[in-house]
DUF2853 family protein
Amino acid sequence: MSKRDDLIVKYAADLKDKCGVNPDMDLLTKVTVGLGPSIYNADSSTVSGSDEKELATVKNNFLIKKLGLSDSGDLDGAIDSVIETYGRSNRNKYRAVIYYMLAKHFKKESVYK
């Protein structure tokens, strides 16, 4: 298996074990591929749930630019909900897992078709 395949398996395990979600592997793979080389970097592959600047990046770069959502309080609420589901105390919150859950939350899977 490639390094990317290994990461996808790790993300799927996080979705199942930490979030209680049975992942759509096709969508998870597309989200992971969409993140490009950032998944291989220790810093950029994770999201800090307590860093406001980091959460603003998720909102602006992913929700608004990638998914095409308009800026509203719903976006912050959804990010907060996903962080809560993943577990605030969980140290490694993988970006691919968070983006996957946000795409599902907003029913924007079609962006990855």
